[in-house]
UniProtKB/TrEMBL annotation:
Gene3D superfamilies, alphabetized: 5' to 3' exonuclease, C-terminal subdomain, DNA helicase RuvA subunit, C-terminal domain, Nucleic acid-binding proteins
Family: Belongs to the RuvA family.
Cellular component terms per the entry's GO annotation: cytoplasm; Holliday junction helicase complex; Holliday junction resolvase complex
Region (Domain III): 182-236
Entry domain remark: Has three domains with a flexible linker between the domains II and III and assumes an 'L' shape. Domain III is highly mobile and contacts RuvB.
Annotated organism of origin: Shimia haliotis
Domain of life: Bacteria
Domain Holliday junction DNA helicase RuvA C-terminal span(s) in chain numbering: 187-233
Biological classification of the source: Bacteria, Pseudomonadati, Pseudomonadota, Alphaproteobacteria, Rhodobacterales
Name by which UniProt lists this protein: Holliday junction branch migration complex subunit RuvA
Compartment(s) where it occurs, according to its Swiss-Prot or TrEMBL record: Cytoplasm
Length: 236
């Protein structure tokens, strides 16, 4: 299994990028959203990857964050959703958007992705709604494991280690955006955990957190918990 690719961008097209890793070129298919964040040819890049293996095919798919990669794998478990459809959904909504749409049962948001019809969108929501809280909670674990940072490339001139074996790393625009997405996932996971500890069920807690995060995207965990509690409070 190839879980991560780090190297230099050789070229990119409308649906994939060729990454040179010490003289070996890897074709990595990405969503429109990920492709838009990649640096120009010749610069360093790093992507988390998922390898699709079939009898007559090997394909690598690239993602800015581990959370996005996990959603890709989960989306592909739905009947009628292949790799292309999964990338279309992630490219349209992003990992956080997919979490919110599925948790809130927003079929319209899912079918906004290219090539996704209403029946397929509804199937995605129905089959994955109970799994969404697990993925949202996983976001916090992944953020802690990676220090709230996405796949991060080395400097373009340090893709091969320096003589002292300690290459200097920099944060690209894509890395910064990926870090922000991973941090947001961590905040939502913390809020979800707090609500679960208060006795709320996974589904209702996830729905409240997703709705609150949609209303205030930059909220800290404490604020997100307060907003979610207001949404969970009995009406009337």
């Amino acid at each position: 299994m190839i879980g991560k690719i780090s190297g230099r961008v050789e070229y990119r097209t409308t649906d994939h990028v060729l990454i040179d890793v010490h003289g070996v070129g890897y074709v990595v298919y990405c969503s429109d959203r990920v492709l838009a964040t990649l640096p120009p040819a010749g610069e360093a890049v790093a992507l988390y990857t998922d390898l699709l293996v079939r009898e007559d095919l090997l394909q690598l798919f690239g993602f800015s964050t581990l959370l996005e990669k996990e959603w890709h794998r989960l989306l592909m478990s739905v009947q009628g959703i292949g790799a292309k459809a999964s990338l279309a959904i992630l490219g349209t909504l992003g990992a956080d958007g997919v979490s919110r749409a599925i948790t809130l049962g927003d079929v319209t948001a899912i079918k906004a992705a290219k090539g996704i019809g209403p029946k397929t969108a509804q199937r995605v929501v129905i089959e994955l709604k109970d799994k969404a809280p697990q993925i949202m909670a996983l976001g916090g674990t992944l953020s802690q494991a990676m220090g709230e940072a996405p796949a991060e490339p080395q400097r373009a001139d340090d893709v091969i280690d320096d003589a002292d074996g300690a290459p200097t790393k920099v944060r690209s625009g894509a890395s910064a955006r990926g870090a922000a997405a991973q941090a947001a996932a961590s905040v939502q996971a913390d809020a979800l955990s707090a609500l679960s500890n208060l006795g709320y069920g996974p589904s209702e807690a996830a729905q409240a957190v997703a709705e609150a995060a949609g209303d205030v995207p930059d909220a800290e965990a404490a604020d997100l918990i307060r907003l979610a509690l207001k949404l969970l409070a009995p009406k009337g």
